[in-house]
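In the laboratory, one determines a bound structure by crystallizing the protein with its ligand and collecting diffraction data. In a computational setting the workflow is compressed into a single prediction: the sequence and the ligand go in, and a structural description comes out. We illustrate the idea with pyridoxal-5'-phosphate.
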Amino acid sequence: MRAFLSPPFLNGPDERDLLLAALASGYIAPCGPMVDALEREAADRLGFAGALATVSGTMALELLARALEIRPGDEVIASDLTFIASVAPFADRGARPVFVDADPATWCVDVALAERALAEHPRAKAFVATDLYGQCCDLDPLIALCARAGVPLIVDAAESLGATYRGRAAGKGAWAAVHSLNGNKIVTAGGGGLLLTDDPALLALCRGIAGQAREPVAWYEHRRLGTHGRLGNVPAAIALAQFRHLGDALRDKAAVWDAWLARLPSWATPMPTASYGVPNRWLTVVTLPPGKSPLRAVEALAARGLEARPLWKPMHLQPVFRDAGAVLAGVGEDLFARGLCLPSGRGLAPALMDETVEVLETL
Ligand SMILES: *Cc1c(COP(=O)(O)O)cnc(C)c1O
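The predicted complex, in structure-token form:
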């Protein structure tokens, strides 16, 4: 490939320097000064009371599912247009998902449909709202609806690190927010995640569950089941260096978005930008006109070494979720049929964008 969808980006000597410092300190462990510094940096910078560094974004969601003691028969309401990791940790513990369609104005969960889902499923154990492709969901009304229903709101902000909603960090004000530090995300440790919350009791509970739920006594005592979910000190060093360059990442991603907009023909419609926030422009995503199929575009671009992808396939269309509930309006299905994610790496060469447009023209 000559242009990847979202390749990792190294900011210079900082990642190497902190990595070597981690090795020199001898902390090759699931704890240590880099983990502590990463958690402090993330919480302070994003304005949360606390953060927990995890082995993946999926694990951060799993810790929340475990904290909620999700079990068979429970219901969890979730965004329909998302990556499966938003819901898999809940469904895997036996919950039945109820998927809520996207709002055509934001591509994130539709607030009116969310209200209907909460009314129809008042005993839901959680509401998982995804910030899609770097754009925050409409947080304030979701917070109000979930508070009224007594349902904890989790924001899957895996794609929206650095994005803001009415001046606040992604997910701020929800019960918990989750970021991913996977290799394709805007800040990466190769793999990793962050759980953010303003609830110190929830943070302590998740920290405990991530350490096999050991009771705080000298011997190994367990009152509940946990897992091994904490990020190691070595990857945390890379993540910390990357985090310190979050501002650079946001600037570069915005530049890639602007460069795409400057050369995309009028038949390609960019994902709408909601007026309530500033997206992190993780991916540049467009919808194509009738006659230009995203699947054919992906194929034609791949033949030239240019990586593009269809949108996330809506969850209610996934065979694994055939028994799930749903509150739909046809928006996610329509976007999936027309949408294309373009190569969006930091520093993507303009010539490769021009070539991509040429290929799309010939479809
Ligand atoms: C990347 C991503 C995740 C999962 O993150 P990992 O760190 O890869 O486990 C979850 N949800 C969404 C929407 C994502 O894009």
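The mean pLDDT is 97. Keep in mind that any predicted model is a hypothesis to be tested, not a measurement.
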